[in-house]
UniProtKB/TrEMBL annotation:
Protein name as catalogued: Uncharacterized protein
Species this protein is from: Dendrolimus kikuchii
Amino acid sequence: MSNKVAIVTGSNKGIGFAIVKGLLNRYDGTVYLTSRNESNGKKAVAELNKLGLKPAYHQLDVADRESVKRFAEYLKKTHGGFDILINNAAIAAGSERQCNYEELKEIVDINYYSLLTIQELLFPLVRDNGRILNIASDCGHLSNLLNKHWIERLSKKDLTVEEVNEFVKWYLDGRKDGTFNLKDLREDGDVGSYRIAKMAVCALTFIQQKELAARNISVNCMHPGLVRTDMTYGAGFYSPDEAARTPLYLVLDAPDTLKGEYVWHDGQILDWYDYNADWWFKISTLND
């Protein structure tokens, strides 16, 4: 039995569940299905068991530091480390126009800040030659941003995590005190929290790649496409199983040279820094 280990966060349903299923069919190692709610996670495991698939399970709330810490300690004790990490856990609110500040902050907390906790507590356990994939979005492409100051800051080749955090804080502080200019984002700031969080995820990805390059660990981010899941309220042009193909390619089949990239749902590598591109998320696609 191989001692290789793969982990998918937020994987009791949707794309995460499909990725776990795909890994179980192809990966020679242990595959962890994780979920914030243990009951939902166990139901997902039972569903896979019916297909003859045997995932490992561990509760994981990516927004809860203690939960991430417990999982890290368990992985270290049980396996000594792991080889593949797919950061899939996320939430969205459809249109955010009716959300209050606390709801907007929760979107940022789960979609972005949780990755900082994961970087701190789980990244030390990634084995050399491992692969990390941050599931982002077309909301995460830099073309979603219209504020010239932050376009220039985020485009810096020596960008730091502290500067990415400043970018997120700029948005949250502005939403809290009512001073944020919605014209600084596409579509008058709708889905603004999700856009900001996913742009921050992409920027963080490129920093993480630089930090882990010496150990030949690849870190990429991707837009999985508009997938028919609960999070999109059933809108989309991909089923979860179809959407899992490119993530599976990136962690199982992609060449070692594919590192620090922003990848489209069809596997195409796009220039994340091209802020004039037409790759930003359009609300109208939810109604197509």
